[in-house]
Amino acid sequence: MWTMDEEIRKKYENHHLFKNCISIDCPKGWQKVIEEIIQFLEYSNRRIDFKILITQVKTKFGLLVVYLEPELFSSGDNKSYEQFSEIAQKVDGIANKSFRMCKICGKNLVKTVVDSKITIRCLEHFNINQGDKNLRS
After folding, report:
1. How far apart are CA 41 and CA 53, in angstroms?
2. Backbone angles phi and psi of 123, in degrees to 5
């Protein structure tokens, strides 16, 4: 079974994008996705009048979920709200890459047939005798 990686939590807990973050729980295999999200947010934050911060990173229903919050824009500012919404949608799209990634090694999962059912799994971390270690939970 995969576990949350303490090393990842420690790596980002003092990063400026995580200053209001309540938890960072991410399997090691998805670290590339976190890095891509950070790069995208840093790029986006340089191009808007406010900053977007990460408030939580977790696994939910087998996917990486990243919660964001805008820093310092008023609720009546439609342009900023639209920018925030657009950036949040792109972050969701990046995070959704985790659906097809092994939680242990980060390699792409492949479609296989097991017991007459099509499943996706990491061939390196699946043991037919023990069951799928990468089940989405």
Report:
1. 8
2. -70, -25
In the block, tokens 């657009």 appear at 86
Residue pLDDT, tens place only, 1-16: 334 567 777 888 889 9
Task: Kindly indicate the confidence band of residue 121, based on its pLDDT and cuts at 50, 70 and 90.
Answer: confident
Residue corresponding to tokens 């390699």: 107
User: What is the mean predicted confidence (pLDDT) over 85-94?
Assistant: 97
- Find the mean pLDDT for residues 76-100: 92
Q: What letters, b where the CB count within 10 A reaches 16 and e where it falls short, cover 40-51?
A: bbeebbeebeeb
Query: ∠ CA 65-101-70 to the nearest 5 degrees?
Result: 25
* Cα 25 from chain centre: 9
In order, the DSSP letters of 70-89 are: EES--TT-HHHHHHHHHHHH
